[in-house]
Amino acid sequence: MNLTQSLQLIVPEEILSIGGLVLLLAAAWLGDKASRAISIAAVVLMAAAAAFTVPVLAGGAMGADTWAFLGQMRVDAFAAFAKLLIYISGAACLMIAPRFFNQWNAMRAEYPVLLLFAVLGTGIMVSAGDLMTLYIGLEMNSLAAYVLAAFLRVDSRSEEAGLKYFVLGALASGILLYGMSLVYGFTGTTSFDGIRAALGEGGSLSTGALFGVIFVLAGLAFKISAVPFHMWTPDVYEGAPTPVTTFFSTAPKVAAIALTMRVALEAFGGQSDAWRQVVVFASLASIAVGALGAIGQDNIKRLLAYSSINNVGFILVGLAVATQEGASAMLVYLVIYVAMSIGSFVGVLMLRDAEGNQIESIAQMAGLSRTRPLLAWCLLIMMLSLAGIPPLFGFWGKLVVFRAAVDAGMLALATLAIVGSVVSAYYYLMVCKTMFFDEPADKVQGRNDWAHWSLLIGSTLFVSPLGFLLTGWLGDLADKASAALFLAA
């Protein structure tokens, strides 16, 4: 494939790259007074990128025709599925940011530019077909994310979150690079297809190659906040500005999970027995730590951080299966998880006191159903959906993942995951009990704008029983996307 054809395949990345550079210059020339216009332009750029991505997913694109730059990037249906989730998440996080930062007089023109480049990095991650492309995309996203975490310079918690994220992120990058060097040393290539061919199908791996595989997966586990590489998540989620936390819990997480799927199922797909035990451990440990760690939390953002770890554990059940059905179930779960995360964090953003200050204490949400009934009912649906309680749509996400594990003969894994799901329901129900049965604290009094209400109500309707009307359509798209990962199988 020549250069022209490769450039035609990566039009969404070109739109974001060129548009991001233009907006960077605009931010430098026009200053912070143009932050709203730059934010709107960034949303338009993501919408344009999405418009070029939809046909790729709808057509189920896969195979050599989707490879750009000699296979270093793969613009297939799987990448398109993840990119659409990323663009939706990025646009939502831009919509909710101005109200939050204006309260601190901290809205800067650089914010939408940083988020746009973070989205660009995540798009490169999910299209990676080579270890070099993987690292370029991952670091482009990470470098922007470190700054975003510390963006609220007047808040010491934000500065602390940025520093912790940077230090631990650098450690994870070192682990990942070491694993990549081992894989390259023992396979002689950085191409995913070349790695798969060199490792072979089944059989035993050499000790060095096995260490390389484990170190690569460990580095990626940090990005998806899977146990035991989850330690940064509660502190960063609590300290980072809430719009940034919303972004961290959606777009980069989708990209990291999609990248982990591509690496595990494409590059290491022929040796699934070698890494399955690691993924099973990470899955069950994440479910357990996410469930038990959240029980004692009194800050709603920290609770949602442990919820994120818990949900990653359930998603990894599908990866442990290492089948197309498991991969499809993971994608279905990701869509529902993104909707639940956006709805939950937007609901948290709407918890304001009379002066407009953010309320994060669960105790101050007491009696919310009597003072702000619509907000309380929306948050109730979000919490119960995160718990996987039927008939809400969050139940469907867990069901398809558990079903994939049972169909693959991994009944013990599915059973333990179900038990973990029951345990995790406790802290979601605790929040619901506080909102509906405790005496009103009457702390939530602030007003909210149309952007917050539209995102919250839209997310609530999606995860409500109405979401089950989309199961057939969503399943078909997930099947098309997951099929692109198994061409070499």
From TrEMBL:
Question: Where do transmembrane segments lie in this chain?
Answer: 15-31, 38-58, 78-97, 109-128, 166-187, 207-232, 277-296, 303-324, 330-351, 374-396, 408-429, 450-474
Residue ranges occupied by any NADH:quinone oxidoreductase/Mrp antiporter transmembrane domain in the UniProt entry: 128-423
Q: Identify the stretch annotated as signal peptide in this record.
A: none
What is the uppermost EC class here? translocase
Major localization class: membrane
Where does the source fall among the domains of life?
Bacteria
**Known EC number(s)?**
7.1.1.-
- Keywords from the named record: Cell membrane, Membrane, NAD, Quinone, Translocase, Transmembrane, Transmembrane helix, Transport, Ubiquinone
Protein's cellular compartments: Cell membrane; Endomembrane system; Membrane
> What membrane topology term does the record carry?
Multi-pass membrane protein
UniProt entry tagged with the keyword Transport: yes
Q: Which reaction does it catalyse?
A: a quinone + NADH + 5 H(+)(in) = a quinol + NAD(+) + 4 H(+)(out)
Entry function: NDH-1 shuttles electrons from NADH, via FMN and iron-sulfur (Fe-S) centers, to quinones in the respiratory chain. The immediate electron acceptor for the enzyme in this species is believed to be ubiquinone. Couples the redox reaction to proton translocation (for every two electrons transferred, four hydrogen ions are translocated across the cytoplasmic membrane), and thus conserves the redox energy in a proton gradient.
Quaternary structure and interacting proteins, as annotated: NDH-1 is composed of 14 different subunits. Subunits NuoA, H, J, K, L, M, N constitute the membrane sector of the complex.
What the record says about family reads: Belongs to the complex I subunit 2 family.
Its name, as the record gives it, is: NADH-quinone oxidoreductase subunit N
Q: Organism, per UniProt?
A: Tsuneonella deserti
The record's gene field reads nuoN
